[in-house]
Recover the amino acids of this structure.
């Protein structure tokens, strides 16, 4: 392709007469048509040759691509405009030729018509959103593209959406992978009959052209490849070549998309061996082709699995073609040399081409297949294409092309075989790759498509030895990173393990290969082959043993490790993925009796591997001290197959168990891990750093536990059931290092354990025994019982969400499925054991998710502490479970105190494991229990309640599992007498319990109190013989016991035996010299276990003789022993329960218990303790009292705290009623008193030491979002739906202002409206006050304190020192009272005219700024803060920038904004009345003072003061039109009345008098009413107007004409008719007319609605200024109530007849005169601009409450539309799309494409849309993010799944539904501006969102 056609023409070519010079496009078509005709003839040889010649020219690779790759200077040489143009040309030719002269597009369409494919096969790359339906999937890897998923029917199925990690392909239509019921409409099996046959000539050209084209592509790939030098990676070159080939590969990809017909042609071309041979061997003398062929051979050379050492072998023989040197070579590789594969091994072989014909030579030393070792040989295009794909590290385009072909069945088989053939090569390339992550993903992208298909996997296994190849390749891969194992015997160990620090393990590079292996083992037919093939099993066990004992930990005893290695992650991941998951895969096929043979095979080779391992590490009998490895995969394979064998295959356990000696060895390492866990939790490994704790946690964590701790415990249970119980028990105590503690003496020495660790290690040992004896996971529980137990354990620790439960319950890790097998049983068990708690909202805004909590009966009967202990990763979870259990018992009244963990009945043991219970009936354990009970009774140190609890638990277990019948006579002791039979007569616990022990001989330090000073030191008795002689006293040495057992079992030659018993730090009797001498003492005991228990009961209850056998009163008890009262309780209950069980088991026990109780003696301590005992009792009592005192204090503190929270903390919600800190003083109090929350002093605010309110100023555009319709707008979810902001309040006000500014004088316009609908400043307070000087020092201290960075101190932000609410300014309190005193409130009897004059005078006085006081400075600074809160564009509306009118407008608008927002917080009306919560903590009063102070600095010219126009008649009406050139003032009827109100009030000196206020309101109401009439007249049509004009005129002379709306309306109409307002009533007039007929009622309603907003704001203002309460009322009477409250209604007004709004009017001057004056202004304006005049008159005054956009029910609708939507700036799909929930704008989060001046799009939008507050829904995460100024926080999600939980980042991909309550909370926080207070986690966004 690289050669331009033009160049070809010039070359000296053999003349070809028929061929027109192919220069021009039209010639191409003609040539193609001509050739097609030639080829269609029966004898088409001539045509074929001609075509070949043409292709030879067009596609010739004469112009070396290498030049293009090496340096661009060669680009010119090719002519035709560099390489690009030439390639283009060649592609054009190919397209023309394929189409055979027709148009290429028509050709494509024609081919598509013949597409028979019933498969979808859509291939996608990483990050694509796809679906997986577990109900329809046969293979766990099944996936569907969105389109197929939505077109199929999956209602009620278990499906989820996921983001593809590695890429994948759609399986729709493939019945091997999914059930047909799930196919979509397009791919429901088409029968091939209705697809017409493909006409021969359609694809004829393709069959000729494509082979050349593909060969050409391969030539390029060969050309472009250069072997990388040993050390320099050559990714750059590879990428260059790939970029050049982009168009060609894309062309092939497009061909595959033409459907089945074209795919089958491509398959023919790719797999035809003849074609390949002809083209590649017929290179002739073409130099360039030769060169590329040589490169190919060099590249091939490194494809075998050879090692560098093999060079030696290589050199010995002449490399004559054909000798199978590789047989020898393979030999060297197979013996597992530990050579490091270094990167130069490519150059190490010499270049003979004939290397190794692919002979299948089996190597004698191992089962490895010769072909795996061999250099590759290629026989078809497909094979070589794949080879280059691998060499170039799987370029995405190539992968996609190869996968797009898969729907073609023939291709699929060929490709799979090729893939397997290249498997070893893939591994080599992967290991060397620098981009192994990307490459791994691409490999799996391919392999998962091939190996998920069982039929295909089976075929390849049979024909291509897939299993051999995989295992061998895995083995080779791991062999490159082995090191010597240091476990046990460091010097002589022969064992090798993988090194977890290697990149191969750290980066999980092995993952793709293991994943494929797991995938094929999931197919029954393949797994069977594996389990039957002994050679494979041996190799596999070899592989597993590489992991046995990896990542060894050695305990640091002296100083802390310098560097904490984190290799343990790699180790756990490797064992789980490479060992455990294949194991679970194999286990899933050993479910039935017929598969017994497989289990026997695995067990056999597993034991062999274990034996080899023990030999390799030189293991005899004692594990090396202070080291532990958590990785014993061989043990675990063995354990899990044993378990399966017994559970499912009915195998006899003993037939697969080894001899006793092997069992002893097997138990050592798992036991070592259990002991180490206890050591780690006792902080004995603390010097190894945190990572060792991490390992202990990972070992039991839910994803690992059933592949780690469960098999280990099971294996120990198996060993315990088969070994001698005394031996096992003593081993346990020795491993846990607590042997020395088990003595009757009060003091002892422990040579291996520090005193502070003894207690927790003893607890560890006992807990381990309890778990070992009571766990039944593999000993007989059914799967459902296991699931239930697991679920109960998790729920008892904490309430859980559905997803965390799924995650915490160990699944049977059927690899990659992510399913719990039988998830239906999961749901049914869940509903059986738990109740669902729906997500609730706490007022603090912390949002709960839907949780499951255990049912009461579960706590009552199923709570199992043992399971909880086994499954807790953190120790605190055990405590949490106990606390919850305690709470349940208190609540249900079952037990008031602190309960002990309940004893739970176990499922019966499987008969094979009956031997396990012998542990409970062995003397060793009984001696330990006796000793511990005695020590506890005697209060020896180091014993805890936990120890007692476990001791009693073990006794109870023993009683529950005793030998069925025990004769009442002494049970005869069977077997030879043991050395300590003098302790107990037999081994049955029931009879041993009553056996009295009189004297015990103990070894104690000489200092111990037991030593009788007078007696001579008695003979040392550690020799075993002395034991027999001392008939009186028993001595007990666990260690000696264990040794003896070991010897009995092993019976080796004496020399070896000596070696076995050599004291390895464990011979406890040789105490180091430094320690005090040990001597022997004899203690008098005279107790039995029963008597100890009874005394213990006395001790626990603190009363003498507290135990009274219950059966003496109620003989029934012995008949039905299940008594609920014993189920829950503390130690006392436990003792009673045990005694009852003991009495039940034997009459003797019953008798003895009664006897002991009759004696009723106080417990006899040994002679020594009396004072000490008393002391401890006193101590206990004192402790008890102290505890009670503490409880009391705590309770008191809690109630105090609670009351503080109730009064002070209002952070929780804007709705809490909280008494305002500012004293709402009684009217007679003259000055308000404030408390400063910093210095705590109270006092008034003064000029020189002002007090201020803590306030938060924020810009807000909430008001601007009000719309005039009730329905909230919907979020657009299709292209058609768009939201336009024309109808928002902000837009309407903007239009109005700009219209006024067009025609009227600027300064006058700025007084006629309010701004602040967008970017208005809202002021809110928490109600706390502080001195302003205190605040300054507080800010200083914050500035120096760098820790608190949730807010920016430099911007003046802080949190209220008392309630921690966020704030950023302090609003000074004006000295004087808070509520104006009586004087101002008294109504005066002046006439309205007098008041009007007073108001005018007061306004006329200029307000001088008060002298420079601290107060005035603060007022100035807070004003500055208010201005800086919002952006400049929201403050400057004047045409002349910086004009004072701007400030004036801004200031009264701040007051307006705050009043309007308060109205919205009250729900948009004042019907609820009362001082609402917003009023309680309102700072409007203080704000008004600050604003008034500043407004009075700008005096309005008395000429222009609107007050004049409202209250006086102007004499000469014409004077105004004299100066035409100047813009007129705004007519008074165009003024916004509420703005006028604020201007009038703020211009008055403060404090304001009530009657002045009322006067202003009355005057303004007349104007408002007139506006309403005018608007009404404009709204109705001509006839209505005439009628009204007429009716009104009749009544004009009535006495109350000025208070009748009909009269006023008719007058307004007649006045305005003089101008042109009503004239131009063309078509658009009809549009504005409302079709309804106006009745008097509807007119009255219109007028009232028009006036209501003004009345509401005015009433609020009056409430704040004068402290009057707002009355509550029904909605329909709101108008009358408010107007009477404002004093507009005369007091004598009767309410009988219907209320008429006009009756509120009180005209200061004759109504008709002033109205006509106002109308005159309008008329003079409408002379010129009738249209605009009309528009300005109709004001929309009825705004509805602001709402966020309405969201669809199902999240999927949002997701599907937005996640593919392109960014309007760069037209790419953004990585993180988001949508604004206020206005629906689509934005890119963090998108660089939309960045402007370092501001990213979301931040910019938050400033433009919400003046700094933005609420965005992140499409890909379903989460809402809030931007507030320079900070942001994640708010949470308003979409929850069916279980009421969020799915952040859509990880689970379950369907999500809107949670209306949450959305309401969000909207509420937006409207009430409380984001800052309620959300806690804020961070700075640095404009990067």
């Amino acid at each position: 392709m690289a050669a331009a056609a033009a160049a070809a023409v010039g070359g000296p070519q053999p003349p070809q007469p028929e061929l027109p010079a192919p220069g021009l496009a039209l010639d191409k078509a003609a040539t193609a048509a001509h050739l097609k005709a030639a080829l269609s003839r029966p004898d088409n040889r001539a045509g074929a040759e001609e075509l070949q010649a043409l292709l030879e020219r067009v596609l010739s690779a004469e112009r070396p691509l290498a030049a293009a790759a090496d340096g661009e200077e060669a680009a010119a040489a090719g002519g035709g405009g560099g390489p690009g143009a030439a390639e283009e040309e060649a592609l054009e030719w190919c397209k023309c030729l394929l189409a055979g002269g027709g148009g290429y597009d028509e050709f494509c369409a024609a081919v598509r018509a013949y597409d028979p494919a019933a498969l979808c096969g859509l291939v996608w790359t990483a990050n694509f959103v796809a679906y997986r339906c577990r109900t329809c999937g046969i293979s766990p890897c099944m996936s569907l593209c969105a389109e197929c998923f939505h077109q199929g029917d999956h209602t009620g199925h278990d499906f989820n959406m996921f983001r593809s990690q590695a890429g994948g392909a759609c399986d729709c239509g493939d019945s091997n992978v999914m059930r047909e019921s799930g196919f979509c409409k397009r791919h429901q099996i088409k029968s091939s009959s209705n697809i017409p046959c493909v006409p021969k000539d359609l694809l004829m050209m393709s069959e000729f052209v494509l082979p050349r084209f593909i060969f050409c592509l391969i030539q390029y790939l060969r050309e472009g490849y250069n072997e990388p030098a040993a050390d320099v990676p050559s990714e750059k070159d590879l990428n260059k070549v790939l970029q050049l080939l982009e168009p060609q590969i894309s062309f092939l990809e497009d061909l595959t998309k033409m459907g089945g017909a074209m795919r089958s042609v491509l398959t023919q071309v790719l797999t035809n061996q003849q074609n390949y041979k002809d083209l590649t061997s017929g290179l002739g003398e073409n130099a360039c082709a030769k060169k590329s062929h040589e490169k190919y051979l060099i590249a091939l050379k490194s494809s075998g699995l050879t090692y560098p050492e093999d060079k030696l072998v290589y050199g010995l023989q002449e490399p004559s073609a054909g000798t199978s040197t590789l047989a020898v070579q393979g030999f060297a590789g197979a013996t597992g040399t530990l050579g490091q594969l270094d990167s130069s091994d490519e150059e190490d072989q010499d270049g003979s081409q004939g290397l190794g014909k692919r002979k299948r030579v089996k190597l004698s030393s191992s089962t490895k297949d010769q072909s795996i070792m061999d250099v590759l040989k290629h026989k078809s295009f497909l094979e070589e294409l794949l080879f280059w794909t691998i060499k170039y590290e799987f370029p995405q385009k190539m992968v996609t092309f190869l996968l797009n072909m898969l729907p073609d069945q023939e291709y699929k088989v060929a490709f799979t075989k090729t893939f397997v053939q290249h498997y070893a090569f893939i591994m080599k390339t992967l290991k060397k790759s620098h981009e192994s992550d990307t490459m791994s993903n691409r490999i799996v992208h391919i392999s998962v498509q091939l190996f998920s298909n069982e039929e295909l996997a089976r075929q390849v296994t049979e024909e291509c030895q897939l299993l051999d190849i995989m295992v061998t390749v895995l083995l080779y891969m791991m062999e490159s990173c082995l090191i010597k194992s240091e476990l046990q015997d460091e010097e002589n160990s022969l064992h090798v393990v993988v090194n977890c620090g290697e990149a191969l393990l750290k980066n999980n590079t092995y993952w793709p290969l293991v994943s494929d292996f797991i995938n094929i083992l999931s197919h029954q037919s393949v797994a069977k082959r594996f389990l039957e093939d002994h050679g494979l099993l041996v190799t596999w066990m070899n592989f597993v043993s590489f992991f046995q004992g990896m990542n060894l930990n050695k305990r640091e005893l002296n100083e802390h490790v310098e560097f904490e290695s984190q290799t343990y992650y790699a180790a756990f991941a490797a064992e789980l993925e490479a060992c455990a998951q294949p194991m679970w895969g194999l286990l899933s096929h050993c479910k039935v009796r017929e598969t017994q043979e497989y289990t026997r095979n695995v067990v056999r080779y597993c034991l062999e591997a274990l034996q080899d391992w023990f030999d390799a590490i030189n293991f005899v009998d004692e594990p090396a001290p202070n080291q532990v490895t958590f990785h014993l995969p061989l043990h675990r394979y063995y354990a899990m197959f044993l378990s399966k064998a017994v559970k499912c295959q009915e195998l006899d356990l003993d037939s697969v168990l080894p001899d006793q000696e092997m069992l002893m060895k097997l138990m050592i390492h798992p036991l070592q891990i259990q002991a180490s866990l206890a050591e780690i939790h006792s902080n004995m490994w603390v010097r190894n750093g945190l990572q060792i704790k991490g390992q202990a946690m990972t070992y039991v964590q839910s994803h690992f536990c059933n592949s780690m701790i469960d098999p280990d415990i099971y294996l120990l249970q198996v060993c315990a059931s088969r070994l001698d119980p005394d031996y096992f028990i003593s081993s346990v105590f020795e491993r846990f290092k607590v042997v020395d503690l088990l003595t009757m003496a009060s003091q002892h020495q422990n040579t291996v354990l520090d005193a502070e660790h003894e207690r927790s290690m003893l607890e560890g040992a006992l807990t381990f025994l309890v778990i070992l004896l009571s766990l039944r996971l593999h000993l007989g529980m059914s799967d459902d019982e296991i699931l239930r137990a697991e679920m109960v354990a998790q729920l008892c620790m904490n309430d859980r969400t559905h997803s965390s439960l799924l995650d915490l319950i160990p699944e049977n890790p059927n690899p990659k499925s992510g399913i719990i097998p039988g998830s239906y049983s999961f749901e049914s068990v869940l509903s059986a054991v738990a109740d669902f708690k729906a997500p609730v909202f706490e007022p603090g805004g912390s949002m709960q998710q839907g949780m499951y909590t255990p049912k009461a009966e579960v706590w009552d009967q199923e709570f199992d502490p043992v399971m909880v202990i086994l499954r807790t990763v953190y120790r605190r979870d055990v405590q949490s479970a106990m606390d919850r259990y305690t709470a349940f018992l208190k609540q249900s009244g079952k037990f008031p105190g602190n309960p002990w963990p309940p004893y739970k009945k176990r499922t019966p043991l499987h008969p094979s494991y009956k031997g396990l219970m012998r542990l409970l009936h062995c003397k060793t354990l009984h001696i330990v229990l006796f000793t511990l009970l005695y020590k506890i009774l005697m209060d020896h140190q180091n014993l805890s309640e936990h120890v007692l609890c476990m001791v009693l638990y073990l006794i109870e277990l023993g009683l529950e599992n005793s030998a069925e019948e025990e004769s009442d006579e002494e049970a005869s002791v069977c077997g030879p007498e043991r050395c300590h039979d003098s302790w107990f007569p037999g081994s049955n616990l029931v009879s041993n319990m009553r056996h009295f022990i009189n004297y015990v001989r103990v070894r104690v330090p000489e200092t111990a109190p037991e030593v009788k000073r007078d007696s001579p030191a008695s003979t040392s008795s550690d020799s075993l013989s002395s034991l027999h002689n001392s008939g009186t006293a028993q001595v007990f040495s666990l260690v000696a016991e264990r040794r003896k057992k070991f010897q009995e079992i092993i019976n080796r030659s004496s020399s070896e035996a000596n070696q076995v018993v050599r004291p390895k730090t464990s011979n406890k009797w040789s105490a180091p010299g430094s320690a005090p001498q040990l001597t022997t003492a004899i203690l008098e005991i005279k107790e039995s276990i029963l008597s100890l228990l009874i005394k213990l009961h006395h001790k626990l209850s603190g009363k003498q003789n507290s135990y009274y056998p219950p059966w003496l009163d109620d003989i029934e008890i012995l008949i039905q022993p299940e008594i609920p009262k014993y189920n829950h309780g503390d130690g006392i209950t436990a003792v009673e329960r045990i005694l009852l069980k003991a009495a039940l088991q034997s009459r003797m026990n019953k008798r003895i218990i009664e006897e002991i109780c009759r004696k009723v003696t106080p417990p006899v301590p040994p002679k020594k303790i009396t004072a000490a005992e008393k002391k401890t009792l006193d101590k206990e009592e004192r402790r008890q009292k102290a505890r009670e005192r503490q409880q009391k204090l705590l309770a008191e503190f809690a109630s105090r705290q609670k009351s503080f929270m109730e009064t002070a903390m209002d952070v929780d919600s804007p709705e809490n009623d909280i008494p305002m800190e500012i004293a709402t003083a009684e009217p007679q109090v003259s000055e308000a008193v404030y408390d400063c929350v910093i210095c705590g002093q109270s006092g008034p605010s003064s000029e020189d030491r002002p007090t201020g309110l803590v306030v938060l100023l924020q810009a807000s555009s909430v008001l601007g979002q009000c719309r005039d319709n009730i329905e909230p707008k919907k979020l657009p979810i299709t292209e058609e739906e768009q939201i336009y902001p024309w109808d928002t309040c902000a837009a309407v006000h903007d239009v109005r202002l700009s219209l006024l500014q067009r025609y009227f004088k600027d300064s006058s316009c700025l007084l006629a409206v309010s701004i602040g609908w967008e970017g208005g400043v809202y002021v809110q307070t928490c109600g706390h006050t502080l001195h302003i000087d205190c605040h300054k020092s507080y800010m200083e201290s914050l500035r120096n304190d760098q820790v608190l960075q949730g807010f920016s101190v430099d911007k003046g932000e802080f949190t209220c020192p008392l309630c921690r609410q966020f704030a950023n300014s302090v609003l000074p309190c004006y000295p004087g009272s808070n509520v104006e005193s009586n004087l101002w409130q008294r109504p005066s009897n002046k006439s309205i005219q007098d008041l009007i004059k007073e108001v005018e005078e007061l306004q006329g006085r200029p307000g001088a700024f008060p002298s420079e006081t601290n107060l005035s400075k603060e007022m100035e600074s807070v004003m500055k803060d208010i201005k800086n809160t919002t952006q400049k564009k929201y403050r400057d509306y004047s045409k002349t920038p910086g004009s004072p009118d701007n400030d004036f407008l801004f200031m009264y608008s701040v007051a307006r904004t705050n009043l309007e927002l308060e109205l919205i917080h009250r729900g948009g009306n004042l019907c609820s009345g009362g001082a609402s919560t917003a009023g309680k903590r309102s700072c409007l009063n203080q704000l008004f003072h600050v604003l008034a102070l500043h407004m009075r600095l700008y005096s309005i010219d008395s000429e222009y003061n609107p007050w004049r126009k409202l209250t006086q008649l102007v004499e000469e009406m014409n004077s105004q039109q004299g100066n035409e050139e100047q813009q007129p003032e705004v007519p008074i009827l165009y003024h916004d009345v509420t703005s006028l109100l604020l201007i009038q009030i703020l211009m008055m000196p403060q404090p304001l008098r009530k009657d002045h206020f009322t006067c202003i309101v009355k005057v303004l109401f007349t104007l408002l009413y007139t506006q309403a009439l005018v608007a009404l007249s404009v709204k109705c049509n001509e006839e209505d107007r005439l009628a009204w004009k007429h009716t009104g005129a009749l009544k004009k002379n009535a006495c109350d004409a000025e208070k009748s709306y009909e009269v006023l309306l008719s007058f307004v109409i007649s006045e305005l008719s003089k101008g042109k307002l009503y004239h131009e009533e063309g078509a658009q007039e009809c549009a504005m007319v409302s079709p309804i007929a106006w009745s008097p009622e509807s007119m009255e309603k219109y007028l009232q609605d028009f006036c209501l907003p003004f009345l509401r704001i005015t009433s609020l203002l009056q409430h704040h200024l004068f402290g009057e309460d707002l009355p509550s009322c029904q909605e329909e009477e709101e108008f009358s109530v408010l107007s009477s409250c404002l004093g507009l209604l005369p007091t004598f007004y009767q309410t009988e007849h219907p209320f008429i709004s006009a009756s509120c009017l009180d005209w200061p001057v004759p109504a008709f005169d002033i109205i006509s004056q106002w109308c005159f202004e309008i008329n003079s304006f409408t002379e010129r601009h009738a249209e605009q005049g009309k528009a300005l008159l109709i004001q929309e005054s009825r705004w509805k409450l602001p709402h966020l956009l309405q969201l669809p029910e199902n999240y999927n609708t949002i997701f599907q539309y937005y996640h593919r939507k392109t960014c309007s700036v760069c037209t790419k799909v953004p990585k993180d799309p988001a949508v604004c929930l206020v206005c629906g704008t689509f934005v890119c989060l963090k998108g660089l494409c939309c960045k402007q001046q370092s501001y990213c799009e979301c931040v910019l939008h938050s400033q433009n849309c919400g003046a700094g507050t933005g609420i965005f829904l992140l499409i890909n995460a379903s989460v809402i993010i809030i931007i507030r100024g320079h900070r942001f926080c994640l708010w949470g999600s308003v979409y929850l799944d069916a279980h009421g939980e969020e799915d952040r980042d859509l990880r689970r991909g379950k369907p999500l539904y809107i949670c209306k309550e949450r959305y309401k909370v969000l909207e509420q926080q937006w409207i009430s501006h409380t984001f800052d207070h309620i959300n806690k986690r804020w961070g700075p966004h640095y404009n990067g969102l």
Summary: The first helix runs from residue 5 to 10.
